[in-house]
Structure formats: structure tokens, C-alpha cells
Amino acid sequence: MTVTPAPAAEGGEDVVRRVEDGVAWLTLNRPDAGNALTAGMRERLVAWLEEASADLAVRAVVITGSGDRGFCTGADLRSQPPGPPRPAGAPDRAVGEAARLIRTGWQRLIAAVLDCEKPVIAAVNATAAGGGMHLALACDLVIAAEEARFIEVFVRRGIAPDAGGAYLLARLIGPQRAKELFFFGDDVPAAEAARMGLVNRVVPRSELMAVTGEWASRLAAGPTVALGAIKHLTNRALESDRAAAFWDEAAAQELVTRSADCAEGLAAFAERRQPVFGGW
After folding, report:
1. Residues 6+ apart with CB under 8 A from 13
2. Which residues of 158-192 are buried (b: 16+ CB within 10 A; e: fewer)?
3. What are the structural domain ranges in the chain?
4. Distance between CA atoms of residues 172 and 32, nearest Å
5. Which of 33, 106, 26, 121 is nearest to 73 (CA)?
6. CA distance linking residue 44 with residue 41, whole number of Å
7. Which of 57, 81, 116, 166 is 20 to 30 A from 89 in CA distance terms?
8. What gap in Å lies between CA 56 and CA 257, rounded to an integer?
9. Nearest to 277 by CA among 230, 223, 225, 226
10. Per residue in 116-147, pLDDT tens?
11. pLDDT of 239-274, one tens digit each?
12. Is the pLDDT at 12 greater than 70, yes or no?
């Protein structure tokens, strides 16, 4: 097992990474703050997700939270780093600065999850609110504890959803159901989230890590190049016209059939045995 802790934060490590048996476990570790993300935590998650794409030792990723108060309750608004010095007469916030903060912050994190070439599982241990809900929904698979809740909290603060929320939610459950969640900001229990199609599996909290580990292990033992292609094609499916989708599919198949895992899969089929995939 390889353990790579995040740089220590005040009061302890605020996000931790470990790689074990081909799975990178990324744990948000601010349980007393509902695992709200600081800017530094967000940057480390982005870096680790980008590294996972290129790391042959990583074949699946899990994102989870510590404690029982929150998976991630969004951004820690008190942690924003100071910007560059302002010239005399400049306003406290110039036009474009808020949009830039969103683009380079939460949107960059959500894109890192969507663009990671390895499957990403969200193990939602407790409340996922605001950007934390969208972090979970950006993952390829979502496993939730029975106690977990999903909350589009933005309307309660009088603001519009960010962190890719409208993009993700409308694609997962359709625009009318998405608007219902956005407009009212009601708590959605895990069981209801599963019925809506936001969650793949709901399990007792005591079984969350075991079930997640089982799914992650299966993914880590799979044909990694093919899984990456499946993720890309599926994510692109709702954004492509038929011609583009068919072109992407053919190009992906060209790439995947040249992988060592494809050769192993075909040989195993011919020899009537289980394949042993290496991940390349």
C-alpha cells in the first residue's frame, strides 16, 4: 500500500490520499466543518484527479468524507485566498472577478472529476450540499449511506447554482425535476435520490466503505483503457449529434482494440477462462 498524505493543515490533514490495490482513496477530512472545501483542498483534489489519469498504478478513484455530518457541504467561504493588491481607486470587486473565481475554482474541480480517465466513485457518507452535491453527481457512480441527504442549498442563500449544477442535474433527471430541486432547495433523502436516478446504490452507513471497496476493486481489476473510453463516450452522449457520437465511438474502439487488455480479453474468451487485465 502506498500512502500519500496531503500537506498538513491547521489542526490536522484536511484531505488525505492513499492508493491501495489500484484504488486511489481521496478523503475529505474536516468532519467538524461538514467537510466543506477550502481552496487548498480543492486544488489538491484537482491535482490528484489529474495525476490519476496518468498513473498506471491507479485504476479507480473513490471520493468520500470523514465523520457522519457531511460528505461535503460545499465551499468554506472563509477560506478564500486574498487576491493581488488593488490599485488606488479600484472597487472591492471588479466586474468579472466573481465569474473568474467560479471558473477557476469549483468548475475546475467538477471538470477534473468528469475528465479523469479512470472511473470515479462517490461514497456519500452524509449530507452532500451545494457544491458538495455536485461533486458527488460528477462522479461516475454514487453509493450513499441511508442517512445521506442531497441538498441544492443555493436558493436558500438567494444565489444561483454553480459548480456545474445545472449542467449535471438536468442531464441526470431532466430539466423539470432539476428545477424542482433548484427552486425549493428541499432536503432529498438518499432513498428518494436513488429513485430519482441520482444515486446508484443506498446502503447502511456501516456497509458503505465495504460496498464501495467492492465496486472499486472490480473497476480496478477491469480493462482500464476500455473503461476510460466508456466513460468518455457516455459523458459525451448527451452533447453530440449522431454523426459525432458515431465518430467518437469508432475512434474509441480503434484505440481500445490496440490495448494489451483487449488482447487479453480476446485470448481469455477463446481459452474459456477469466481474463486478467493489466490496466493498459
Report:
1. 5, 6, 7, 29
2. eeebbbbbbbbbbeebeeeebeebbeebeebbbee
3. 2-220, 224-271
4. 31
5. 33
6. 5
7. 81
8. 18
9. 223
10. 999 999 999 999 999 999 999 999 999 999 99
11. 888 999 999 999 999 999 999 999 999 999 999 999
12. no
- Residue environment code for 69-95, b if the CB has 16+ CB neighbours within 10 A, otherwise e: bbbbbbbbeebeeeeeeeeeeeeeeee
Q: pTM, whole model, 2 decimals?
A: 0.88
> Could you name the CATH architecture of 2-220?
Alpha-Beta Complex (3.90)
How far is it, in rounded angstroms, from Cα 64 to Cα 23?
13
Strands 141-145 and 120-124: parallel
Torsional sign, CA 126, 130, 135, 136: positive
Nearest CA to 117 among 51, 164, 172, 168? 51
Give the angle 159-136-76 at the CA atoms, nearest 5°: 50
